Amino acid sequence: MKSRKLLETYIPIVDFIADLVGPNCEVLLHDIVDVQNSVIAIRNGYISGRRLGCPLTDLGLELLENKSYVNQNAVVNYLSRTDNGEKLRSSTYFIKDETSKLIGMLCVNILMSPDSQIVKDLADKLMNAVFANSVAANTVVNEKVVESLHSSIENVVDSAVEKILEEYDMPVERMSIEEKTAIVQRLNANGIFKIKGAITKVAGRLQTSESTIYRYLSTK
């Protein structure tokens, strides 16, 4: 409860950023205690179609699993994409308690547009001003989409699976046991199995059984 009250102090910041940057800027506050219903505050959610109670993203789960927040305070300037294909310039700030334990994430997503560079510069200055003590951050400089913004648990899982399958130049039915094992273990490393029901969905996508997915997970 104490961490939730601390998180709720960031809700005015969600409103502040959204009001300052404008309607092309989506701002969300995530409580990472429940990754399936993590959004506790949101402004301009029409951009991605998300609302209160929506899940953490595929990238959010990955950051949570690989503990990126331990040595940095934010990940900034990476590309994300909505369900309808809109690209956004995104940044995530890690919210920690007095013991440096991660309790939430503040995410800012700005629609790509002819004036997006101006808006991005404004947002960067804003983030620096609001979080003046957060000097350690990781800036993603490549132009590859690294996050998918979905409103449903099912789509978060599907997106995580598809992102890895795109790296394989063959249909699922032709994949070897070793390849499927590697895929499952990467999904596990990315935190996707924190989501209830992910085992079932991954099994269906890889055309195998749930028991086989568990076996792949236990393979060293």
Looking at CATH, which topology of the largest domain would you report?
Answer: Beta-Lactamase
What is the overall number of helices? 8
Q: In CATH, what is the class of the largest domain?
A: Alpha Beta
- The arrangement of helices and strands along the chain is HHEEHEEEHEEHHHH
Shape summary: globular
**CATH homology superfamily of the largest domain:** GAF domain
Annotation, overall tally of beta strands: 7
Low-confidence stretches: none
Domains (count): 2
The value of Rg in angstroms is 18 Å
User: Largest beta sheet, briefly?
Assistant: 7 strands, mixed
CATH architecture of the largest domain: 2-Layer Sandwich
Q: Mean of the pLDDT scores?
A: 86
Distance between the termini: 38 Å
